[in-house]
Write a structure and sequence with these properties.
The complex is a heterodimer of chains A (about 575) and B (about 325).
Chain A: H1 19-28, H2 31-60, E1 62-66, E2 72-76, H3 81-86, H4 89-117, H5 121-126, H6 131-141, H7 144-163, H8 168-195, H9 199-216, H10 234-240, H11 247-260, H12 272-296, H13 305-323, H14 334-341, E3 343-344, E4 347-348, H15 361-386, H16 390-402, H17 418-440, H18 454-502, H19 507-514, H20 521-529, H21 538-578
Antiparallel strand pairs in A: 1-2, 3-4
Helix pairs in contact in A: 1-6, 2-4, 2-7, 4-7, 4-8, 4-9, 6-12, 8-9, 8-12, 11-14, 13-15, 13-17, 15-17, 15-18, 15-20, 16-21, 17-18, 18-19, 18-20, 18-21, 19-21, 20-21
Chain B: E1 8-17, E2 20-30, E3 35-39, H1 46-53, E4 61-66, E5 69-70, H2 75-80, E6 82-85, H3 97-108, H4 113-126, H5 142-154, E7 160-164, H6 172-187, E8 191-195, H7 199-205, E9 208-213, E10 216-221, H8 223-229, E11 235-241, H9 245-253, E12 258-263, E13 267-272, H10 276-288, E14 293-300, H11 303-313
Parallel strand pairs in B: 3-8, 3-9, 6-7, 7-8
Antiparallel strand pairs in B: 1-2, 1-4, 4-5, 9-10, 11-13, 11-14, 12-13
Classes of the chains: A mainly alpha (about 575), B alpha/beta (about 325).
Chain lengths: ~575, ~325
């Protein structure tokens, strides 16, 4: 046999030599199927470009003048061509966003699961490429056809940008953020495709995940958590929107943008684009770490314990950093933002005037509740990523016993996550307390103060919910946690809501029932800390605190009981591993 | 010169799935250049062992070295010198045969396109699949798919080949070619670790083998050593007795080392586990008792028999 040279696989940074990328360049860009893709994309982009441009030429120069005898006469003056050329830019941007964010993300998730489905992913696992090279290969390889479709629309955009005299200062940030957002969305799809076993579920979960993360969650920005808006292209696009529009319309949009304001991360006056890129890159890095871990070891948790705890602290840091500077100006509150948006000097729209009176205490309570709920959900999500199931713990204990060790390394995947969930709960409590104290202590709510015991209440809510979920998962696995989430987390909320709407007299009972759900605990904790919010709602006044105290008491007992069971099982496991008979 | 370190060195390997122990403290060393067979009934732990060796699965504990490389410390390095062919080897549906090989070649060897193409052609010819190079993988038959994946396994000239049921779905000609290819590779120093359900073939092909059941290693060595170690020196004797056959059957049943005696039309069939001397004594006894023996045939237990009895013992 002839000798073969073996320089080894290309390093991760040489993307153009990445075998996975090349594989998809071959299979997804076959001339037979590519022709239809190219044709459809060119037709769509070309039609949009030509249609919008023609409409602009015909309508923008048209105006009505008051002619002789008081009749309105239509006149046509050739419009400014730079304005005309700008008109197709935004429709083209929408098409590009659909291609990159929706079609490509679905393709990434579906393609990844297809490989797992066909069981050919093992071949990639078996190759000596580094985990990072594998992640990058799939990340840019799977949506290669969609990147080509995007590229095909660019000549039309380039024409508009050039002939429309759009400043680079406007289009460069928009396209930079669009590209990082596309990578972020694809990483979301890749992670969903890697985690989900079933191809159809992977597609649905990835699309749902992308919709939730980048469409629903950013809406929390309207309630004070503006950081989440920076995971989307929206802040940068809206900031530069006017640059893509005809001059007159663009100026009006710019005025509105200035009134809405922008996030000033801890008053650092960081450019929107820089902060958006930073936020998206941190999330990209998190996804890459998740995928890297899975490629390194198929059984790995998505997050390491240290990384997840750090991420929890980082989330609090950025949430506070983006929200606190908006308190003094009132832009943290939805009423103030809407009021400012709908009042342009003498021109006033429906919601104008909202900002002429201070925000109500109830609005602050809702904002603080949302902050607490988001903190709790983020903590639970991260906890589930690092908590080991029973089987994993057993394996770890057996391994430790084999090597004569009495316990597992605390940050290993097999070690219980309880202590780190406590650290996360502590981070969450600190963040939530700072936020609540700053909001309530601001000049908008004179005479109001967050009581000194409120942090303990917040801490109790986070610790009990975090520990109970983690312990349930570690003791009973996915199924146990799922059943608990349905019957304790969701069902009381649904039943209580139905009862509350059915009859006013059922309101106290509804409060008691909904309070059983840990999801309502942040709202109840805030309501107890700020009783003035409740106003005259007697049922809530009477039932709310009692129900909260009762159910939190139950939660504490359940948590302690689960802790005891967990400890007992852990000891039994160690004993069984230590007493395992020697082979032979 | 042969490498003194074993090509495959497994030390106290354990694989658990919940409370089920798939591989229980397996210790095994395979010298370089061997074709080593792994035999065992379903659920014996063969595939789990193979997947751990292939770095696709993390065991509960244990140490595994391939050609001196610790596969848990340096998995990427281990993958460079190891070729793994899974059971019912899958192929990607969207690739052509040559594209599949080129993709694998690039991910193992890198190098330029011309070198890769030459190597892919060489491997396709080794498995007699050169005429299918432009066929879509999904259009290949089961046997052709197996051959294609074997070609993929050969691409980077691995020092250790781990083949899980490589011959399943292959026609007799392809099986013979597989045997010849593996022998050639072994002669060149490649170590082949192979499992197969076609045990006669495995016994013929392998230089040594081991038997696993319920995650435990029952025996390892040459085919005869394994047979002896498992206490399956038993063979079946078929003795032709011309008259008084039922009387002869009763007499034979009373003798030592005899079990499962069956009186057939013209012969007595019996399982015998004694030595050759004892066998001769048994026949002498028959003559001495006045039975007229016309013929005596001996048949050794096959590996199928061994495997069936091992599996049955553990039911």
């Amino acid at each position: 046999m002839r000798e073969i040279s073996n320089p080894g696989p290309a390093p991760a940074w040489q993307l153009w030599r990445n075998p996975i990328l090349r594989r998809y360049c071959r299979t997804r860009l076959r001339p037979r199927t590519l022709g239809a893709t190219v044709l459809i994309t060119l037709l769509l982009a070309g039609f949009t470009f030509a249609m919008t441009r023609t409409i602009a030429i015909n309508t923008m120069g048209r105006s009505y003048v008051n002619g002789p005898k008081g009749a309105w006469t239509q006149v046509y003056n050739p419009p400014d061509m730079a304005d005309v050329e700008r008109v197709p830019l935004i429709p083209l941007l929408v098409i590009q966003a659909v291609i990159l964010f929706i079609v490509a993300t679905g393709q990434v998730a579906g393609g990844m699961t297809a490989d797992a489905d066909e069981k050919t992913m093992d071949y990639v696992r078996l190759s000596p490429m580094t985990p990072l090279a594998k992640v990058l290969g799939y990340l840019f390889g799977l949506p290669i056809r969609e990147w080509l479709m995007f590229a095909l629309t660019l000549p039309f955009t380039a024409w508009g940008l050039w002939k429309g005299n759009v400043a680079a200062g406007h289009w460069v940030p928009v396209y930079a953020v669009m590209l990082t957002a596309a990578v972020l969305y694809h990483l979301t799809g890749l992670t969903a495709g890697t985690v989900m076993k079933n191809r159809r579920w992977a597609f649905l979960v990835s699309m749902g995940g992308v919709f939730l993360l980048y469409s629903v969650v950013p809406q929390l920005g309207k309630f004070g958590l503006v950081y989440f808006e920076y995971l989307t292209v929206w802040p940068v696009v809206t900031e530069n929107f006017h640059g893509f529009m005809p001059v007159t319309a663009g100026a009006a949009v710019k005025t509105a943008q200035d009134l809405i304001g922008k996030a000033r991360f801890f008053d650092l006056d960081m450019p929107q684009v820089a902060f958006t890129l930073l936020s998206q890159l941190v999330l990209c890095l998190t996804f890459i770490v998740m995928l890297w871990r899975r490629w390194r070891r198929a059984e790995s948790h998505l997050q390491g314990k240290v990384w997840a705890t750090g991420l929890c602290a980082w989330i609090q840091f950025v949430l506070l950093g983006c929200s606190l500077p908006l308190i003094s100006s009132g832009k943290l509150f939805l009423s103030q933002r809407l009021g400012a948006l709908f009042s342009f000097g003498n021109v006033r729209f429906g919601n104008a005037g909202l900002n002429e009176r201070p925000p109500a205490l109830a609005e602050a309570t809702v904002t603080i509740t949302i902050y607490g709920t988001v903190t709790m959900l983020a903590m639970l999500l991260l906890a589930m990523m690092i908590a080991p199931e029973r089987e994993t713990q057993e394996r770890g204990v057996r391994r430790a016993a084999k090597f004569g060790k009495r316990s597992l390394r605390w940050f290993s995947d097999e070690a219980p996550a309880i202590s780190l969930v406590l650290v996360m709960a502590l981070c969450g409590t600190v963040g939530w307390t700072i936020f609540a104290r700053q909001v309530i202590g601001s000049h908008w709510f004179p005479g109001q103060e967050l009581p000194g015991w409120a942090p303990w209440l917040f801490g109790l809510v986070l610790v009990t919910s975090g520990l109970t979920s983690t312990l349930l998962y570690e003791l009973r696995g996915n199924k146990g946690l799922f059943l608990a989430a349905i019957f304790i987390g969701v069902l009381p909320l649904l039943v209580g809501s139905v009862m509350a709407t059915a009859s006013h007299t059922l309101a106290p009972a509804a409060v008691w029932i909904t309070a059983a759900s840990p999801l309502v605990a942040p709202a109840n904790a805030v309501a107890i800390a700020l009783p003035d919010t409740l106003g005259d709602a007697d049922a809530l006044h009477l039932a709310g605190p009692r129900a909260f105290a009762f159910w939190q008491g139950i939660m504490v007992i359940v948590t302690l009981w689960l802790l005891m069971v967990h400890r007992k099982e852990g000891r039994a496991r160690k004993l069984a591993a230590a007493m395992a008979p020697e082979p032979g | 010169m042969s490498d003194p370190a074993p090509a495959i060195d497994i030390h106290e390997l354990r694989v658990d799935y919940g409370n089920f122990i798939a591989v229980n403290d397996l210790t095994l060393a395979v010298p370089a250049g061997e074709i080593f067979g792994l035999v065992g009934p379903n659920g014996a732990g063969k595939t789990s062992t193979f997947r751990v060796l292939a770095t696709l699965q993390t065991p509960t504990y244990g140490a595994v070295k391939l050609a001196g490389i610790d596969i848990f410390e340096a998995p990427e390095e281990a993958r460079r010198i190891m070729g793994y062919m899974p059971d019912l080897a899958p192929v990607p549906s969207d690739m052509k045969a040559w594209e599949f090989l080129d993709f694998s070649c690039a991910s193992f060897l890198g190098g330029n396109a011309a070198e890769r193409r030459a190597r892919c052609e060489e491997c396709l010819e080794m498995v007699q699949l050169a005429d299918k190079r432009h066929a879509m993988c999904k259009s290949l038959s089961r046997g052709q798919t197996q051959r294609l994946v074997l070609a993929r396994t050969l691409l980077h000239r691995p020092k250790v080949m781990i083949l899980d049921e490589p011959a399943s779905g292959m026609d007799p000609l392809s099986r013979r070619n597989l045997r010849m290819t593996l022998r050639t590779l072994a002669a060149e120093g490649t170590t082949v670790f192979v499992s197969s359900h076609i045990l006669s073939e495995l016994a013929e092909m392998c230089t040594s083998l081991c038997v696993m059941n319920r995650g435990r290693l029952l025996s390892s060595g040459t085919a005869d050593e394994v047979r002896a170690h498992l206490g399956r020196s038993e063979r079946t004797l078929s003795i032709g007795v011309l008259a008084r056959r039922e009387e002869a059957t009763e007499w034979v049943m009373m003798q030592a080392n005899v079990r499962s005696v069956e009186c057939q039309a013209e012969r007595i069939s019996l399982g015998f586990s004694g030595s050759q001397e004892e066998q001769a004594s048994l026949l002498e006894g028959l003559f001495a008792q006045g039975f007229r023996v016309s013929v005596c045939e001996e048949r050794k237990s096959s590996f199928e028999d061994i495997l069936i009895s091992v599996a049955e013992e553990n039911l």
